[in-house]
Amino acid sequence: MQSKWLTYGLWTMVAVAVLAAAHVAFWQRYCVEQDYRQVELALGYDEISSLAGTEGLTVVQGLKEFKKHGVTGVVIREPMLDDLRQNGDIEVFSGQELLKRQGEDFISKQPLNRDHTYITTPSKDVFDQLSSQMSAKLANVQFFETGQGTYVIETLAPYTAIKELGIGFTRKSVEDVRQAGMKGILQIRTWPGPTQQNIDKVFKLYRNIPNVSAVLFNDDTLPGYPSLLPVLAEEVRKMDVPLVQVEFFPQRGFEKLGILLDKKVVRLHTIAQNELKRVSAGEALDRYTLAAAERNHRILLVRPFLTGGDLMQENLNFMDQLKSRLEKEGLQVGSFSLLPPVPVSGFLVLLIGLGVIAGGLLLLDRLSLGCWIPIIGLGALILWPALMYLDFVQARKLMALASVIIFPTLALLWNLKREGQAPGQAVVSLLRISLFSLLGALFTVGLLADAGFMLKLDQFSGVKLAHVVPLMIVLFYFSLDRVKGERLREKIKRILDHPVKLGVALAAGFMAVAVAIYVMRTGNEGMTVSGAELQFRSLLDQLMGVRPRTKEFLLGHPALLLLLLYGYKDNRFLPLLLLAAIGQASLVNTFAHIHTPLWVSLLRAFNGLWLGILLGLAVYWSVQWAASRGRDRMHG
User: Fold this and answer.
1) Among 261, 594, 587, residue whose Cα is nearest residue 396
2) Contacts of 383 (CB under 8 A, 6+ apart)
């Protein structure tokens, strides 16, 4: 860089951004997370009804037993019309069927239409429930009583089109939850053709239900999506309860609805009943505990085990174990806590972004592109505030992506040398590189410290780019750096003109496969993890509290330490460089999981570093010992 004053200015911008990001990350966000530690254990009403019945207990008795063991919430699933038919509470006829029977029974008194659907029930309670729900959700529905103890509902819709229609919450389920002294979480179904009028009608019915603590939607598309989500938000707001987000169950419209509700959202984790059959009680405990401790889930919907000996006692024991595990993680068991508001300062975000821009300009200088610094720097200084003004959230996501690319790349480019170092010096250098890389993590945390990201209503974008781009820049830079020539064009020409040996081609192919696997394993939808790896992860969690990432402690950090010990003398060390870059990129991207508590990410990074250093030293000393033995034999 031609001007040392420009260099000082860029470093000053980075330092100011560090202070701004540290204030946001380690004060505002940390304080918020400390007040967000209470987890609710919940059960499904239908499952507890079945479990209590097998033990000769009423539902209320069953719920009270679980309440003694820490359960405070009950998810009440809205039944479908077809559930009533299967239970024998209603009968369903087509108009054509009834015309054939006309004169035989009550039907003779009513005019019939062969194209309509007729639902009959002897229960006044069932009739009242269906009348209120179907009139709210469907058009042209008629209700009448025959005078012979039979109630009839007539609709134009064919039964196949409405058999999955939600028919509200039964008086018994609501009353059972109330008598047990617990809170209900309503699991509401979507219905066909929602309108502003029927959304209002439906939610008026739900607002009358007592002891409701939260609302959960049942289907993959929310009622009124996309155009009527503001109407839906207003109705949920009138209920004065939070919205429940179910992990691994994406719902169209949920993120927007959560934003419209001012991020009044609570996250829920559960294990599906069919999946529960394939996992042990220990594995289930691990999953529930990790969901609460490491992913900020504040409702755990615990599916009961329905096979075994004394089912009730086994499930009660499971609740006791889960409660104990959660408390060991520093969590409290009780009614769920809501994430407190997280203040977002536009001025601090602006400063953090300027620090990222300064880092990018320093990277350009390291890549020998210093001539572009004035143009790119001026453009970035104009564009960054403009992006913040036009779309504050997207601007922050874009700058966070830039941050996790720039700083681990710059850390490696600045600190890897040709000369090897002594073990103590190499360890210090590895820590220095990692701390510099973590500037990218600090800036990312500061930029995305927002309830929307902490609740996964929005997410860090560009996960694969964040892992791959630093890798490509580092490999490209060091590949050319060890090639003779002064200009970039000359170096590239030398590489292209150089004959490729079979060993080099095989090594390049191996590296390409490794990078492809690495890319596929990154992001939210990576490759399937083997059972053996899952067991290994679980073991690390139990031994270390928070497991480090495998690609950091097992590959990246040991490889980086070896590079520092031996020095990057030539391109034979490219495989080690590849692994080192993967480790640094992973280290920074750990903090891009904003929904993970900050202390968990810090402990994960720390565990990865010390364990990776130990493994790297073990490999180095093993190689030194083997080489020494080899020399002794040659001279012996």
Assistant:
1) 594
2) none
